[in-house]
Amino acid sequence: MRLLCGIVFLLITHQLIFAQQKEFILNAKIVDENNIPLAHVDIVNRRLQLSFAADKYGYFTTNTQMSDTLLLFKSGFLPQKLIVNDTMFDQNKIILVRMFHVPIELTEVQITAIKTHQQIRKSINNLYVPNTDLYPNAILFQNPISYLYELISRKEKEKRLAANLQTEFSKRSVLKELFRLYNAYDIINLPDDDYDNFITYLNMPYEFMQSVSDYDLAVTIKYKFKEYRNDKNNWIKQEIYPAALDDLDRIRQQNKN
User: Fold this and answer.
1) Is 49 left (phi over 0), alpha (psi -120 to 50) or beta?
2) Domain 24-105 has what CATH class?
3) pTM for this structure?
4) What is the CA radius of gyration of the chain?
5) pLDDT per residue over 179-193, tens digit each?
6) Bridge-partner residues for 24, per DSSP?
């Protein structure tokens, strides 16, 4: 009798596991609280670590498994979480997902839509330090006066410093967008208050970000996050570390040289 009960238990367990791993097509439509379709909502599948978007009528179709979690983001709306369950297995059924506007008492800044990989990669590739030299093509032997002016002028040094700092600020903004995306994918688990500290810990040049693939960048940041989490108490005290202070010191040192 015990053997029979054990076999029945194993069969039921196997069927439950199989049901959870089996993929099926989910059809859904996203609307607001007034049943108005929402166009181009950003959707993240946490298990697959992939993002996609609904069409202009609010519809989307995706392959899912039981207990998958879909995160929905749209500017001006509260984030929505959709957990896949067995009531959604009917492929002929369209699941209605409702999103709600951000309450009036909240500001738009408090709810930030997560950018997609493609949007962040475009921002990374657009990072550069503009040439602020008054005579950018000055060569020592061909035009020594212009060359010495660019080399010695305090004003030109300050312009180069400002250009470098602006690029560092842009790099930090892009990295913060990347952290939000990685948090949604469960690649890292970094609080917003730690973004600047972790960027300082990373010390990652934007040239490196441009030279590696999205996958290699994610692996690198995930590895460095584990180091940061383990070293945090020894590396930095709990007070806020001034944003871009390390970059400012480094750039000033470069200008002195």
Assistant:
1) left
2) mainly beta
3) 0.45
4) 25
5) 998 988 888 999 888
6) 64
> What is the identity of the amino acid at 220?
T
Exposure string of 9-41, with b = 16+ CB inside 10 Å and e = fewer, is: eeeeeeeeeeeeeeeeebebbbebeeeeebeeb
38 near 85, Cβ under 8 Å? no
Cite the residue boundaries of each domain of the chain with CATH code 2.60.40.1120: 24-105
Please report the sign of the dihedral spanned by the C-alpha atoms of residue 140, residue 143, residue 146, residue 148. positive
Any idea of the CA torsion for 10, 16, 22, 25, to the nearest 10 degrees?
Answer: 160
Q: Assign 125 a pLDDT band (cuts: 50, 70, 90).
A: very high
Measured in whole angstroms, the distance separating CA 168 from the mean position of its chain's CA atoms is 17
- The secondary element (H helix, E strand) that includes residue 206 is helix 206-211
- Residues 226-243, mean pLDDT to the nearest whole number: 58
Q: What is the separation, in whole angstroms, between the first and last Cα of the chain? A: 85
